[in-house]
Amino acid sequence: MLEDSMLSLTEAGILLLLSLASAWKLKIGNRNTQGTVNYQNRIHVFAISFTPSTSATATSPSPPNLHLTYESSTLLSDPTGNPTTGLEADPSGGLTIRNFPLLPAATYTGNGFGQPGSGGKRISIDAEGLVLAKDGSYWVSEEYGPYIYRFSKTGKLLNAIQPPPAFLPHRNGSISFSAASPPIYDPDRPLTPEDPESGRSNNQGLEGLTASPDGKTLYALLQSALINDGGPDNPNRRQSRLLEYDISNPSKPQYKHEYVVTLPLWTDPTAKAGKQTKVAGQSELHYLGHGQFFILSRDSGAGRGQDSSTSIYRHIDIFDISSATDIKSAANDATEGSIASSKGVLEPGIKAAEYCPFLDFNVNSELARFGLHNGGAQDAGLLNEKWESIAVVPVDGKKGKDGEWFVFSISDNDFITQD
Fold first, then answer.
1. For a 10 Å CB count at each end of the chain, is N or C smaller?
2. How far is CA 188 from each of CA 39, 182, 294, rounded to the nearest angstrom?
3. pTM of the model
4. Rounded to whole angstroms, what are the CA distances from 123 to 30, 55, 94, 140?
5. Where is 367: in which H helix or E strand?
């Protein structure tokens, strides 16, 4: 049975969405937007109305039955009130603020959109995960650091969690927060080497973030393996690391445990021979209780607006860390610390979390009941490519004592919008 949890989708019917028109949407969406821009990160609040359509069929599909109504937004800023930005972090250095670790930052010219302005330097956040704390503050995980930030109700940065050194991207012997996602005003900005030599891979940071029901424990999961553990290439980037923090005192988070989650593989029929086996990177994490988690693992490059319309692997799966090895150690967490070979094979004695496939998004017989489909025509009914969120809500609207739950997921549109 699922436990009560702090959800991005609250029991009061309020949906919190992290607006990631920073590099989160732009990094992969550069082909849509021509580069990262000086967009201030923000959290949107929506009211939701949901009416289940239990009688819908493929021949008589349900019309849209989930409706969102915009309510408010909170702009995210640094401790002094300066806006954050979605611009790619500088290749070297960062921003130094008292009582904070070195922060990823973007030094920009003009207004940061390729237009005239005075320039400046702002904390650069490629925001991905969102947890609403019981005191109304927000925990946000991101990919440049990869860091975990805590913001106040009004959006001001309160504290930052820097992960172990093994996670921090290094180039040429020093920390380099860049993710090879140059700004719109300088799309050909050189970066050598393009991939970090250790730490998180480009655009593969702390994608998943969730908390325990009592709000005292925070979990963050990499999108795929560190460079040190087999990244960044397929199929070697399977061994993702899960971090656990004690946040009972949110002002002083304590790093407690670390585990390995071995991500699933899928076969890409469009790839060249010998290149077809790929890793289903994870896009979201949700704590269920008793050491078990939902994980959204999926393929990429298939869906509405993509060259291929047919997704092969798009799941909400389950993993369990109850019997997994706690890999937290000085050696594993050192700058070049490794728990797997360059081919992604775990070191002897390390047991990964137990992983179980669960909910498949791509079942066309079910999708058809709502006028949707996987594969086929590039039309309004085709599922989007990037499903990147999980929220769980009790069917009874209370505490879920009947054991029945709705699972919600929302996709990223990579800034492909319509007027």
1. C
2. 20, 7, 39
3. 0.92
4. 20, 49, 8, 14
5. helix 364-367
